[in-house]
Design goal:
Elements: E1 7-13, H1 29-32, H2 36-44, E2 46-51, H3 61-68, H4 73-76, H5 80-87, E3 97-106, E4 112-114, H6 124-131, E5 135-137, E6 140-146, E7 151-157, H7 187-204, H8 208-215, E8 223-231, H9 238-242, E9 246-249, H10 253-261, E10 265-266, H11 281-291, E11 297-302, H12 304-311, H13 314-333, E12 339-344, E13 361-366, H14 380-384, E14 389-392, H15 396-403
Helix pairs in contact: 2-13, 5-10, 11-13, 12-13
Amino acid sequence: MSSQKKKILLIVMDGLGDRGNEDLDWQTPLQATKTPNFDWFAKNGMSGICDTIAPGVRPGSDTAHLSILGYNPREVYTGRGPFEAAGIGLISKKGDIAFRCNFATVDEKMNVIDRRAGRIREPDTTELVKALEGLTIDGVQAIVREGTEHRAALLLRGPELSPEVTDPDPHDLAEVLESKPKCAGAVFTAGVINKFVKKSYEVLKDHPVNKRRIAEGLPPANVLLPRGGGSFPNIEPFPEVHNMRSACVAGVGMIKGICGVCGLDVLDLPPQCTGGTDSDFTLKAKCALEALKKYDFVLMNCKAPDVCGHDGNAKLKCEIVQRLDDMAGYIRDNFPKDLVIVFTADHSTPCSLMDHSGDPVPITIYTPGMVIDSATSFSESGCASGSIGRIRGFDIVPICMDLANRTEKYGA
């Protein structure tokens, strides 16, 4: 192909999609917020809506990102735990299983009071993780690493382990559950998990960090609750599949883990580029544009909208949308001519639900010289009128590859 190959920047704004909110006069945060820069890309590009897995399916961020990268989650997804572990540097061996975890607050009867322990973060989590070092349960090593804010990962290393166990995490304000085997081969593993949860409570409940937090009126992080267990997947590397040097710009361990397992280089970011609502989105965009001088493909994740959705905070989500639009303005002012850019989300996290939904998410794609459609605003409804129509997550990379002049002709 004689046309110059372009590079691709795929920006995934985690949980950006929403539903009409009473606090916003039944608009979504995208509809209720002025977004001149996002709208510029919509007016000068092409737009649509995307079901990252399939219509009506409530995606996790993990399965959604796998689909966006072109993988079939039903074939390669083994649980969120392995990606969480990989994202924070837990290197697996054959036979290891991993879980994602929350530092949580429970009472004396093991009833969950706060699933995120007041969104505890470092340096408190650093000290709590240190207290859990060196745990061995029934001959199984329990290795814990801290993630972003209240998150952590647990890797179990030992003989005859199976990920086919239920979660101790009740996923709600309820009593901590007993992990149970899903098959005969998982009885031992379920027992190890239950003993780990109890041990974490014994170690953490009287830890100096938690005594101080209680004195300050903060919820203690007195237990670690595992969920989403899985073995490490065997995935064909994204850079080899698409013949592109590829990198990830993200602040969340799980997203970094997914990209790392898929073969993308996970880049170190300045401390201001976090996985929370305090993240500097414009600085993250600067890092992504800088990375494109070396790489052909960069996936950039911004977690903050999802945090607002889970907290049910529509007004803060509007503020985040405004800051993301400022980020889009920086990209617009510094746009390389040889770039295809995508603005989209991995799933919707409606503030009214405080959880993921199966609603499709907006998507806008722009590169100079492309066919412009009739969409004029970047929102759930504004993008729906665009020429992309309604696609699935695994359609995104092929569309971008074609716009980037990187596809081979199909047929003669």
